[in-house]
Amino acid sequence: MRGVAEILRLWTVMACRQINQSFTDSATKNAMNRFSKTTRCSNVVALLCLCALCSLNAQTMVDGSAIVTSRSGGVTASDASGESVPVRAHDIVHPTGLELTTEKNGRIFLTMSNGVAIALDASSTVQFVAYTQRPFDKEEQNLGLEPSVSKLQLHFTEGQIAIASNRLSPLSELRIQLRQGEIRLHKGTCLISYGAAGLHITAFDGNLTYYYPDGESREFVSAPKSVRISDQSMVRQQIAEVTTADSLEAHETQLCQAAQHASKRVTFQPNQDTGQPPVPVLIVKPDYFKQPDFRPYQFKD
């Protein structure tokens, strides 16, 4: 986008020079020349408006942030350099380069600053390849959708993962690299798992696109569709089996619902002024406000 803005800026400068030259010509030019000058001026105004729009869209992207909403059992994490990092409940993490691995009894839930929630099931591994987003202000946050534009790229290699992205902006990108192929989640909640029978992809809510390894052939999966792609069918670029989300096991359905819940547990402070990764704020459960009011005194009527 910066390259486009720069090209338009140079184009505008050249157009202005032409207009300046035209106005220095003799006053004896005919009406057609004057019409040409007016047309050139209009073109310059349009170009200036377009340049301003491009400048807004070319705002610097910053690193996104995330918070561990909950975890249980054994979970290990390492950063891009391979160093171990803590991932306790309510810890704030910088996702880019982070790799998470759960043990047989482990689970972890994270909410990203773009509103996307990640639920990693037991015996699973995922890496956050890259995560950036445009800074946003309070007014944008009040719109009800993702307040910024973001790019999130995951690499899922083992086990089972649920991803909820009900508030994702249409301009944002959420891609999940797999052992073979790639998924782009457009909006909604999906469940991805590896099994003995192959790759299982379920659109629990919303829709997604699966791209075969060649990067051209694809499958569009819309809720409540669930597909299985075996190693053999992947070579043929075909789906091996089609079912629905109703066929999911109880714990798989619960994982998807838990991811959806996690996405609603956190809000993030606007970072337009700071230019730093957004700071998460946990949302208190409504039940908290229904607790009895314990006071060491009473007022008499």
Can you walk me through this structure?
It is a single chain. The chain is an alpha+beta fold and 301 residues long. The protein folds into 2 domains: 2-57; 62-280, Jelly Rolls, CATH 2.60.120. The chain is 24% helix and 35% strand. The strands form 2 sheets. The chain has a 16-stranded mixed β-sheet that branches. The chain has a two-stranded antiparallel sheet with strand order 17-18. Strand 11 (173-177) and strand 12 form a beta hairpin. Helix 1 runs antiparallel to helix 2 (31-57). The protein is globular, with a radius of gyration of 26 Å. It starts with a helix and ends in a 19-residue tail after the last strand.
Q: What is the helix tally?
A: 5
Low-confidence segments, given as residue ranges, are: 1-32, 44-57, 293-299
Strand content: 35-45%
CATH class of the largest domain: Mainly Beta
The count of strands amounts to 18
Q: What's the average pLDDT?
A: 82
Q: What is CATH's topology name of the largest domain? A: Jelly Rolls
Distance between the termini: 69 Å
Number of domains: 2
Order of helices and strands: HHEEEEEEEEHEEEEEEEHEHEE
